[in-house]
TrEMBL record:
<dbReference type="InterPro" id="IPR036318">
    <property type="entry name" value="FAD-bd_PCMH-like_sf"/>
</dbReference>
<keyword id="KW-0560">Oxidoreductase</keyword>
<feature type="domain" description="FAD-binding PCMH-type">
    <location>
        <begin position="47"/>
        <end position="211"/>
    </location>
</feature>
<dbReference type="InterPro" id="IPR016166">
    <property type="entry name" value="FAD-bd_PCMH"/>
</dbReference>
<dbReference type="InterPro" id="IPR016171">
    <property type="entry name" value="Vanillyl_alc_oxidase_C-sub2"/>
</dbReference>
<keyword id="KW-0285">Flavoprotein</keyword>
<dbReference type="InterPro" id="IPR010031">
    <property type="entry name" value="FAD_lactone_oxidase-like"/>
</dbReference>
<dbReference type="InterPro" id="IPR007173">
    <property type="entry name" value="ALO_C"/>
</dbReference>
<dbReference type="InterPro" id="IPR006094">
    <property type="entry name" value="Oxid_FAD_bind_N"/>
</dbReference>
<dbReference type="Pfam" id="PF01565">
    <property type="entry name" value="FAD_binding_4"/>
</dbReference>
<dbReference type="InterPro" id="IPR016167">
    <property type="entry name" value="FAD-bd_PCMH_sub1"/>
</dbReference>
<dbReference type="Pfam" id="PF04030">
    <property type="entry name" value="ALO"/>
</dbReference>
<keyword id="KW-0274">FAD</keyword>
<dbReference type="InterPro" id="IPR006311">
    <property type="entry name" value="TAT_signal"/>
</dbReference>
<dbReference type="InterPro" id="IPR016169">
    <property type="entry name" value="FAD-bd_PCMH_sub2"/>
</dbReference>
<keyword id="KW-0732">Signal</keyword>
<protein>
    <submittedName>
        <fullName>FAD-dependent oxidoreductase</fullName>
    </submittedName>
</protein>
Length: 455
């Protein structure tokens, strides 16, 4: 997470040592990791699988044949950045990694292979004079996986990646292919955010805009001042977000605007080792967490970063975590966040990672968290080696009371009936799903809970 990129590292570590925080917990011991990976696991390591068949198709023809020959449940995987159990299957896992690269350009619509990583696509578009309309701050996801979960950046007038799709090619479980555009109605709107429940997306056409540059500013504020600032200014910046530290009652605020400044800033300093150190310290000495949150923000300097959009959007996140994210109505976002923060303080829940707060514009994808509603997304993180249950169990009821819709790739506890109540187009999606996958071959155990006939 890039939230510490503006920190004065030397002064912070000196202050940490002078406070006696490290003690016997030397950095070498705190950073030690010994764990053997199974056949497949997601980025954080909370989801794992040992499938009977792993398919690495190098062409669409091979992919279609592999689906025809397969039996049982089929699940695709790309960058493996989802925290919910959308991938695991004991039957067939299909890698999209080789289905990558730019396939064609028609004006401002660029068509990419579904396995193309966002970082590759955005860099290639920039080299040809174009940019994605908006991007998230992690760019290692495959494009197919990113739209499957309505992955998003921030900006009250900007849609998620699913909202930027103009066309796509869907390979059904029986190996047949469908080319979809907006003219195809609900089939297209379902496929733009499908959680991989319809088939495997082999190609996606994204609507781009002329390449632009961004100026990012980062600074700190007391938490309530940050909430007031972001709520007041959310429509006055192209991008605005903040990271809330509930226990330390501080926040790191970030805005981005288009700039004509041609001078690139030097690369951001990599803060991941420092973040790992602080997370492990907070986990093992929870009584220090409020002080650590305050100390971190105390040493964050007001900074700016300028460069091509795709470079400014992207941050390197090497410190693993697990995540729950709900999107509530935009107008209720700050009030919901206030209640979440108060609950964390009252229950004295030990969490160092901040809550990321972002605005996203409405779209019409059937399962998008932003379906016909502007949203405020609250992303709740817990360090991967720490039990996330106390934190997520405490805040999820609040997010639900605020009419929150869960991010499909993040952890939540909702079943089919609850999802039907909060996603207005849920039954429209189900109609498309039953038509395209009548035997439910794309549904693993988790997706059966969400979409199965008895879910």
């Amino acid at each position: 997470m890039a939230l510490l990129d503006s920190i004065d590292r030397r002064r912070f570590l000196k202050a940490l040592a002078s406070a006696g925080a490290t003690g016997a917990l030397a950095p070498q011991a705190l950073l030690a990791e010994t764990e053997k990976a199974p056949a497949w696991q997601n980025w954080s390591g909370n989801q794992r699988a040992n499938p009977a068949n792993l398919v690495f198709a190098t062409s669409e023809a091979q992919l279609r044949q592999a689906l025809r020959d397969s039996t049982g449940t089929i699940r695709p995987f790309g960058g493996s950045h989802s925290f919910s159990a959308v991938v695991p299957s004991d039957d067939t896992l299909v890698s999209l990694e080789a289905l990558a690269g730019l396939r064609g350009q028609d004006g401002n619509v660029f068509t990419y292979g579904g396995g193309t990583r966002l970082a590759m696509a955005s860099a290639q578009a920039n080299s040809m004079g174009y940019s994605f309309n908006n991007e998230p701050d992690i760019n290692l996801q495959s494009l197919a996986g990113a739209i499957a979960t309505s992955t998003h950046g921030t900006g009250s007038g900007l849609q998620s990646l699913s909202g930027q799709v103009e066309s796509l090619r869907l390979i059904l479980p029986d190996g047949e292919a469908m080319d979809l555009t907006r003219d195809d109605g609900d089939a297209f709107l379902a496929a733009c955010c499908s959680v991989g429940a319809l088939g495997i997306v082999s190609e996606i056409g994204f609507r781009h805009e002329p390449a632009y540059r961004l100026k990012e500013r980062t600074w700190t504020l007391p938490l309530q001042e940050a909430m007031d600032f972001v709520e007041r200014e959310k429509n006055n910046f192209r991008h605005i977000e903040f990271f809330a530290f509930p226990l330390g009652e501080q926040a790191i605020v970030k805005t981005m605007e288009i700039t004509d400044d041609p001078n690139d800033s030097s690369a951001r300093e990599d803060s991941n080792d420092l973040l790992e150190l602080v997370c492990k310290l907070a986990m093992r000495a929870g009584w220090m967490t409020p002080s650590l949150q305050k100390l971190v923000t105390l040493f964050v300097e007001d900074s700016t970063y300028i460069g091509p959009a795709h470079k400014v959007f992207a941050n390197r996140r090497a410190v693993r975590f697990n995540e729950m994210e709900y999107t509530v109505p935009a107008e209720d976002g700050i009030a919901c966040l206030q209640e979440v923060c108060e609950t964390i303080r009252k229950q004295d829940i030990n969490v160092f990672f901040p809550i990321e707060f972002r605005y996203v514009a409405a779209d019409d994808s059937l399962l998008s968290m932003y379906h016909q509603r502007d949203g405020a997304s609250l992303s709740i993180h817990q360090y991967f080696a720490q039990d996330y249950q106390p934190l997520f169990t405490a805040v999820e009821p609040i997010l639900r009371r605020c009419a929150g819709r869960p991010h499909w790739g993040k952890l939540h506890t909702l079943g089919q009936q609850q999802l039907r109540e909060i996603y207005p187009a849920f039954d429209r999606f189900q109609t498309v799903r039953r038509e395209l996958d009548p035997h439910g071959r794309m549904l693993n155990q988790h997706l059966k809970t969400l979409f199965g006939e008895t879910g």
